[in-house]
Amino acid sequence: MITRKLDDLGRLVIPKEMRRTLDMIEGDNLAITLSGSSVMVRKFATACDFCNNDEEVVRTNRVFLCRDCTDILEAKRSN
């Protein structure tokens, strides 16, 4: 666990090692939601840039891809 203090404007710094693990970079949109008494923060992507699927979307080199399209591209790459 890592602890951080909220500043006087309510800002919180997400530690660099966590941002790196989650592939977060400056300018990424984040979704902030409440879950009981916890605050949940996750990267926000609306949909895959290729098929418009909105499930399991991740950013890869500034492109949003779903798991299916990622698998297709990786299969084509290995052929």
SSE layout:
Elements: H1 16-21, E1 30-35, E2 38-43, E3 58-60, E4 63-65, H2 67-78
Antiparallel strand pairs: 1-2, 3-4
Explain what the structure shows.
The chain is an alpha+beta fold and 79 residues long. The chain is 23% helix and 23% strand. The protein has helices at residues 16-21, 67-78; strands at residues 30-35, 38-43, 58-60, 63-65. It has a two-stranded antiparallel ribbon with strand order 1-2. Strands 3-4 form a two-stranded antiparallel ribbon. β3 and β4 form a beta hairpin. The protein is elongated and about 50 Å long.
The residue-averaged pLDDT reads: 89
Ends apart, CA distance between termini: 42 Å
Specify the overall morphology. elongated
**How would you spell out the order of helices and strands?**
HEEEEH
Which class best fits the helix and strand makeup?
alpha+beta
Beta-strand percent range: 15-25%
Rg of Cα set = 16 Å
Helix-residue proportion: 10-25%
Number of strands: 4
The strand order across the widest sheet is: 1-2
The major β-sheet equals:
2 strands, antiparallel
Q: Would you identify the regions where 5 or more consecutive residues have pLDDT less than 50?
A: none
Output the number of helix runs.
2
